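Table 4 source record.
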Amino acid sequence: MSAYITSIGTANPDNKYKQEDIANFMCANLPLSEDEQRKLRMLYRATGISERYSVLDDYKHHNGNFKFFENTPDLQPFPSTSTRMKLYRQQAVPLSISAITNCLNGHKLSSFTHLITVSCTGMYAPGLDVDLIKTLNLSPNINRTSINFMGCYAAMNALGLAKLICGSQEAKVLIVCVELCTIHLQSNHNEDNLLAHSLFSDGAAAVVVQSEPQKHALQIVSNSSQLAISGKNDMAWHIGDFGFEMALTSYVPDIIKSGIHELTTQLLAQTNLDLSQIDTYAIHPGGKKILEAIEHELGLSKTDNRHAYDVLRYYGNMSSPTILFVLQRVLQEQQTGQNILSFAFGPGLTMESILFKSH
Protein backbone atom coordinates (compact mmCIF):
# COMPACT_ATOMS: atom_id res chain seq x y z
CA MET A 1 0.00 0.00 0.00
CA SER A 2 1.01 3.62 -0.55
CA ALA A 3 0.18 6.93 1.13
CA TYR A 4 -1.44 9.88 -0.64
CA ILE A 5 -2.14 13.46 0.40
CA THR A 6 -5.67 13.97 -0.94
CA SER A 7 -6.61 17.29 0.66
CA ILE A 8 -5.01 20.24 2.45
CA GLY A 9 -6.84 23.00 4.31
CA THR A 10 -5.36 26.10 5.95
CA ALA A 11 -6.54 28.79 8.36
CA ASN A 12 -5.27 31.98 9.99
CA PRO A 13 -6.51 34.23 12.79
CA ASP A 14 -8.62 37.28 11.94
CA ASN A 15 -5.87 39.75 12.83
CA LYS A 16 -3.73 40.46 9.76
CA TYR A 17 -0.86 42.91 10.11
CA LYS A 18 1.44 44.61 7.69
CA GLN A 19 5.06 43.95 8.52
CA GLU A 20 5.68 47.66 9.11
CA ASP A 21 2.84 47.80 11.65
CA ILE A 22 4.49 45.10 13.77
CA ALA A 23 7.78 46.98 13.50
CA ASN A 24 6.00 50.11 14.75
CA PHE A 25 4.63 48.14 17.72
CA MET A 26 8.09 46.86 18.61
CA CYS A 27 9.70 50.30 18.37
CA ALA A 28 6.93 51.90 20.42
CA ASN A 29 6.93 49.35 23.24
CA LEU A 30 10.41 47.89 23.63
CA PRO A 31 13.22 49.95 25.22
CA LEU A 32 15.18 50.39 21.99
CA SER A 33 17.59 53.23 21.24
CA GLU A 34 17.17 55.22 18.03
CA ASP A 35 19.96 53.22 16.43
CA GLU A 36 18.36 49.92 17.54
CA GLN A 37 15.01 51.04 16.15
CA ARG A 38 16.63 51.89 12.82
CA LYS A 39 18.27 48.46 12.65
CA LEU A 40 14.99 46.74 13.59
CA ARG A 41 13.10 48.50 10.79
CA MET A 42 15.84 47.52 8.33
CA LEU A 43 15.61 43.91 9.54
CA TYR A 44 11.82 43.85 9.09
CA ARG A 45 12.07 45.28 5.56
CA ALA A 46 14.71 42.70 4.61
CA THR A 47 12.60 39.66 5.56
CA GLY A 48 10.61 39.48 2.31
CA ILE A 49 7.41 39.46 4.41
CA SER A 50 4.56 41.83 3.53
CA GLU A 51 2.01 40.71 6.11
CA ARG A 52 1.52 38.26 8.96
CA TYR A 53 -1.27 36.96 11.21
CA SER A 54 -1.70 36.84 14.98
CA VAL A 55 -4.34 35.76 17.50
CA LEU A 56 -3.44 38.96 19.36
CA ASP A 57 -5.04 42.27 18.47
CA ASP A 58 -2.55 44.16 20.65
CA TYR A 59 -0.27 44.67 17.65
CA LYS A 60 -2.85 47.13 16.29
CA HIS A 61 -2.15 49.46 19.22
CA HIS A 62 1.07 51.34 19.79
CA ASN A 63 0.12 53.37 22.88
CA GLY A 64 -1.82 51.16 25.27
CA ASN A 65 -5.31 49.63 25.14
CA PHE A 66 -3.67 46.22 25.26
CA LYS A 67 -5.59 43.08 26.23
CA PHE A 68 -2.73 40.56 26.41
CA PHE A 69 0.22 42.74 27.33
CA GLU A 70 0.27 45.11 30.29
CA ASN A 71 -0.65 48.76 29.68
CA THR A 72 2.61 49.92 31.22
CA PRO A 73 5.89 51.33 29.93
CA ASP A 74 7.83 48.60 28.11
CA LEU A 75 4.82 46.25 28.61
CA GLN A 76 6.26 45.07 31.95
CA PRO A 77 5.72 42.61 33.46
CA PHE A 78 5.42 40.39 30.41
CA PRO A 79 2.76 37.63 30.47
CA SER A 80 3.71 34.48 32.36
CA THR A 81 3.98 31.10 30.67
CA SER A 82 0.72 29.98 32.32
CA THR A 83 -1.09 33.05 30.93
CA ARG A 84 0.24 32.31 27.45
CA MET A 85 -0.77 28.64 27.69
CA LYS A 86 -4.31 29.62 28.71
CA LEU A 87 -4.57 31.80 25.60
CA TYR A 88 -3.06 29.02 23.49
CA ARG A 89 -5.77 26.58 24.56
CA GLN A 90 -8.51 29.14 23.91
CA GLN A 91 -7.30 29.94 20.41
CA ALA A 92 -5.60 26.78 19.08
CA VAL A 93 -8.75 24.63 19.06
CA PRO A 94 -11.00 26.93 16.96
CA LEU A 95 -8.15 27.73 14.59
CA SER A 96 -7.48 24.00 14.11
CA ILE A 97 -11.17 23.37 13.46
CA SER A 98 -11.18 26.06 10.76
CA ALA A 99 -8.27 24.33 9.01
CA ILE A 100 -9.99 20.94 9.31
CA THR A 101 -13.24 22.36 7.90
CA ASN A 102 -11.33 23.78 4.94
CA CYS A 103 -9.66 20.40 4.44
CA LEU A 104 -12.62 18.02 4.48
CA ASN A 105 -13.52 18.43 0.79
CA GLY A 106 -16.11 15.64 0.93
CA HIS A 107 -14.31 13.54 3.55
CA LYS A 108 -16.58 12.52 6.42
CA LEU A 109 -15.24 13.05 9.94
CA SER A 110 -16.37 9.54 10.82
CA SER A 111 -14.09 8.08 8.13
CA PHE A 112 -10.79 8.98 9.83
CA THR A 113 -8.92 6.11 11.44
CA HIS A 114 -6.00 8.13 12.83
CA LEU A 115 -5.47 11.64 14.20
CA ILE A 116 -2.02 13.26 14.40
CA THR A 117 -1.76 16.66 16.11
CA VAL A 118 1.35 18.81 15.76
CA SER A 119 2.38 21.89 17.76
CA CYS A 120 5.40 23.45 19.45
CA THR A 121 3.94 26.74 20.73
CA GLY A 122 1.64 25.32 23.38
CA MET A 123 1.08 22.15 25.38
CA TYR A 124 -1.50 20.86 27.85
CA ALA A 125 -3.08 17.52 28.80
CA PRO A 126 -5.63 16.26 27.99
CA GLY A 127 -4.44 17.98 24.87
CA LEU A 128 -5.42 19.39 21.51
CA ASP A 129 -6.18 15.90 20.20
CA VAL A 130 -8.75 15.24 22.92
CA ASP A 131 -10.36 18.67 22.48
CA LEU A 132 -10.68 18.07 18.72
CA ILE A 133 -12.23 14.63 19.24
CA LYS A 134 -14.76 16.10 21.66
CA THR A 135 -15.58 19.22 19.63
CA LEU A 136 -15.84 17.45 16.26
CA ASN A 137 -17.44 14.31 17.67
CA LEU A 138 -14.72 12.11 16.22
CA SER A 139 -14.71 8.46 17.15
CA PRO A 140 -13.40 7.91 20.71
CA ASN A 141 -11.61 4.87 19.27
CA ILE A 142 -9.60 6.91 16.76
CA ASN A 143 -5.86 6.20 16.92
CA ARG A 144 -4.11 9.39 18.01
CA THR A 145 -0.55 10.65 18.19
CA SER A 146 0.77 14.04 19.32
CA ILE A 147 3.99 15.45 17.88
CA ASN A 148 5.10 18.24 20.18
CA PHE A 149 7.96 20.70 20.44
CA MET A 150 9.77 19.67 17.26
CA GLY A 151 9.47 23.08 15.61
CA CYS A 152 9.19 24.00 11.95
CA TYR A 153 9.95 20.55 10.52
CA ALA A 154 7.34 18.66 12.59
CA ALA A 155 4.77 18.42 9.78
CA MET A 156 7.31 16.37 7.84
CA ASN A 157 7.51 13.90 10.71
CA ALA A 158 3.71 13.72 10.77
CA LEU A 159 3.64 12.99 7.04
CA GLY A 160 6.33 10.34 7.50
CA LEU A 161 4.28 8.70 10.25
CA ALA A 162 1.15 8.83 8.07
CA LYS A 163 3.13 7.14 5.30
CA LEU A 164 4.05 4.27 7.64
CA ILE A 165 0.44 3.94 8.83
CA CYS A 166 -1.08 3.94 5.33
CA GLY A 167 1.64 1.66 4.01
CA SER A 168 0.77 -1.06 6.51
CA GLN A 169 -3.03 -0.94 6.56
CA GLU A 170 -6.10 0.60 4.95
CA ALA A 171 -6.23 3.94 6.73
CA LYS A 172 -7.28 7.57 6.49
CA VAL A 173 -5.16 9.91 8.61
CA LEU A 174 -6.05 13.45 9.64
CA ILE A 175 -3.01 15.61 10.43
CA VAL A 176 -3.54 18.94 12.19
CA CYS A 177 -0.72 21.46 12.71
CA VAL A 178 -1.39 24.63 14.70
CA GLU A 179 1.05 27.25 15.97
CA LEU A 180 0.55 30.52 17.83
CA CYS A 181 4.08 31.86 17.58
CA THR A 182 3.20 35.49 18.26
CA ILE A 183 2.07 34.86 21.83
CA HIS A 184 5.71 34.28 22.78
CA LEU A 185 7.08 37.80 22.33
CA GLN A 186 9.98 38.26 24.77
CA SER A 187 11.03 41.41 26.62
CA ASN A 188 14.70 40.63 26.01
CA HIS A 189 15.53 42.44 22.77
CA ASN A 190 18.77 40.63 21.92
CA GLU A 191 19.65 39.85 18.31
CA ASP A 192 18.16 36.31 18.37
CA ASN A 193 14.81 37.49 19.70
CA LEU A 194 14.54 40.41 17.29
CA LEU A 195 15.31 38.10 14.37
CA ALA A 196 12.73 35.53 15.50
CA HIS A 197 10.02 38.15 16.08
CA SER A 198 10.58 39.59 12.61
CA LEU A 199 9.62 36.26 11.00
CA PHE A 200 7.06 34.28 12.97
CA SER A 201 3.31 34.26 12.59
CA ASP A 202 0.20 32.26 13.58
CA GLY A 203 -1.64 29.68 11.50
CA ALA A 204 -3.00 26.16 11.18
CA ALA A 205 -3.14 23.51 8.47
CA ALA A 206 -4.90 20.16 8.17
CA VAL A 207 -4.04 17.32 5.80
CA VAL A 208 -5.78 14.12 4.80
CA VAL A 209 -3.42 11.21 4.05
CA GLN A 210 -4.96 7.93 2.92
CA SER A 211 -4.07 4.56 1.47
CA GLU A 212 -6.46 4.86 -1.44
CA PRO A 213 -5.28 7.06 -4.34
CA GLN A 214 -7.48 9.81 -5.75
CA LYS A 215 -7.19 12.35 -8.56
CA HIS A 216 -5.21 15.46 -7.70
CA ALA A 217 -3.25 13.75 -4.94
CA LEU A 218 0.39 13.75 -3.86
CA GLN A 219 1.90 10.33 -3.23
CA ILE A 220 4.44 10.30 -0.40
CA VAL A 221 7.19 8.35 -2.13
CA SER A 222 10.12 8.54 0.30
CA ASN A 223 11.51 10.63 3.13
CA SER A 224 14.88 11.25 4.71
CA SER A 225 16.31 13.15 7.66
CA GLN A 226 19.67 14.61 8.59
CA LEU A 227 20.82 16.14 11.86
CA ALA A 228 23.47 18.87 11.65
CA ILE A 229 24.54 18.58 15.27
CA SER A 230 26.97 21.49 14.87
CA GLY A 231 23.89 23.75 14.72
CA LYS A 232 22.37 22.49 17.96
CA ASN A 233 22.66 25.90 19.61
CA ASP A 234 21.82 27.96 16.52
CA MET A 235 18.15 26.98 16.41
CA ALA A 236 16.56 25.99 19.71
CA TRP A 237 13.29 26.36 21.63
CA HIS A 238 13.13 26.50 25.45
CA ILE A 239 10.31 26.92 27.97
CA GLY A 240 10.93 29.93 30.20
CA ASP A 241 9.00 31.62 32.99
CA PHE A 242 7.64 34.19 30.53
CA GLY A 243 6.75 32.08 27.52
CA PHE A 244 8.80 30.00 25.13
CA GLU A 245 12.23 31.37 24.24
CA MET A 246 13.71 30.88 20.80
CA ALA A 247 17.37 30.80 19.87
CA LEU A 248 17.75 31.65 16.20
CA THR A 249 21.14 32.83 14.99
CA SER A 250 22.24 34.30 11.68
CA TYR A 251 24.38 31.18 11.07
CA VAL A 252 21.36 28.96 10.31
CA PRO A 253 21.34 29.59 6.51
CA ASP A 254 25.02 28.62 6.27
CA ILE A 255 24.47 25.42 8.25
CA ILE A 256 21.56 24.43 6.00
CA LYS A 257 23.57 25.33 2.91
CA SER A 258 26.42 23.05 4.01
CA GLY A 259 24.08 20.07 4.52
CA ILE A 260 21.34 20.40 1.93
CA HIS A 261 23.20 18.73 -0.94
CA GLU A 262 24.00 15.64 1.14
CA LEU A 263 20.38 15.46 2.33
CA THR A 264 19.14 15.67 -1.26
CA THR A 265 21.55 12.97 -2.42
CA GLN A 266 20.54 10.78 0.50
CA LEU A 267 16.82 11.09 -0.37
CA LEU A 268 17.18 10.62 -4.12
CA ALA A 269 19.36 7.55 -3.56
CA GLN A 270 16.17 5.81 -2.37
CA THR A 271 14.73 6.25 -5.88
CA ASN A 272 15.99 6.10 -9.44
CA LEU A 273 15.83 9.87 -9.79
CA ASP A 274 18.42 12.62 -9.88
CA LEU A 275 18.01 16.33 -9.27
CA SER A 276 17.42 17.08 -12.97
CA GLN A 277 14.21 15.02 -12.80
CA ILE A 278 12.62 17.12 -10.06
CA ASP A 279 9.76 19.17 -11.53
CA THR A 280 8.69 21.25 -8.54
CA TYR A 281 10.04 22.30 -5.15
CA ALA A 282 8.14 22.78 -1.89
CA ILE A 283 10.57 24.31 0.60
CA HIS A 284 9.79 25.57 4.09
CA PRO A 285 10.35 29.35 4.03
CA GLY A 286 12.18 29.63 7.31
CA GLY A 287 13.50 32.95 6.06
CA LYS A 288 14.62 34.60 2.84
CA LYS A 289 18.30 33.85 3.45
CA ILE A 290 17.52 30.16 3.96
CA LEU A 291 15.72 30.01 0.62
CA GLU A 292 18.59 31.83 -1.09
CA ALA A 293 21.17 29.48 0.46
CA ILE A 294 19.32 26.42 -0.88
CA GLU A 295 18.96 27.99 -4.32
CA HIS A 296 22.69 28.66 -4.45
CA GLU A 297 23.64 25.15 -3.35
CA LEU A 298 21.18 23.21 -5.56
CA GLY A 299 21.24 25.56 -8.54
CA LEU A 300 17.58 26.60 -8.24
CA SER A 301 15.95 29.78 -9.46
CA LYS A 302 13.51 31.96 -7.57
CA THR A 303 10.87 30.69 -9.97
CA ASP A 304 11.62 27.14 -8.80
CA ASN A 305 11.08 28.42 -5.27
CA ARG A 306 8.04 30.59 -6.02
CA HIS A 307 5.62 28.74 -3.72
CA ALA A 308 7.90 29.26 -0.72
CA TYR A 309 8.37 32.96 -1.47
CA ASP A 310 4.62 33.48 -1.84
CA VAL A 311 3.89 31.89 1.53
CA LEU A 312 6.69 33.84 3.21
CA ARG A 313 5.45 37.12 1.70
CA TYR A 314 1.81 36.76 2.72
CA TYR A 315 2.00 34.68 5.90
CA GLY A 316 5.51 34.79 7.36
CA ASN A 317 6.92 31.70 9.08
CA MET A 318 4.14 29.91 11.00
CA SER A 319 6.45 27.10 12.14
CA SER A 320 5.01 23.60 11.53
CA PRO A 321 1.97 24.51 9.32
CA THR A 322 4.10 26.57 6.93
CA ILE A 323 5.33 23.73 4.71
CA LEU A 324 1.70 22.59 4.35
CA PHE A 325 0.74 26.05 3.07
CA VAL A 326 3.47 25.57 0.44
CA LEU A 327 2.30 22.05 -0.41
CA GLN A 328 -1.27 23.30 -0.79
CA ARG A 329 -0.09 25.57 -3.60
CA VAL A 330 1.80 22.70 -5.19
CA LEU A 331 -1.24 20.42 -5.00
CA GLN A 332 -3.45 23.05 -6.64
CA GLU A 333 -1.32 23.42 -9.75
CA GLN A 334 0.35 20.05 -10.29
CA GLN A 335 -0.05 17.93 -13.39
CA THR A 336 -0.04 14.13 -13.20
CA GLY A 337 3.33 12.43 -12.95
CA GLN A 338 5.44 15.29 -11.61
CA ASN A 339 8.19 14.81 -9.01
CA ILE A 340 8.11 17.24 -6.07
CA LEU A 341 11.02 17.67 -3.67
CA SER A 342 10.23 19.16 -0.26
CA PHE A 343 12.43 20.35 2.63
CA ALA A 344 11.81 21.67 6.15
CA PHE A 345 14.16 22.67 8.96
CA GLY A 346 14.06 23.10 12.71
CA PRO A 347 15.79 22.73 16.09
CA GLY A 348 18.68 20.34 16.27
CA LEU A 349 19.58 21.59 13.64
CA THR A 350 17.27 19.16 11.85
CA MET A 351 16.77 18.95 8.09
CA GLU A 352 13.88 16.87 6.75
CA SER A 353 13.07 15.95 3.17
CA ILE A 354 10.21 14.21 1.35
CA LEU A 355 9.79 13.20 -2.29
CA PHE A 356 6.23 13.40 -3.62
CA LYS A 357 4.75 12.32 -6.94
CA SER A 358 1.60 13.97 -8.26
CA HIS A 359 -1.42 11.87 -9.31
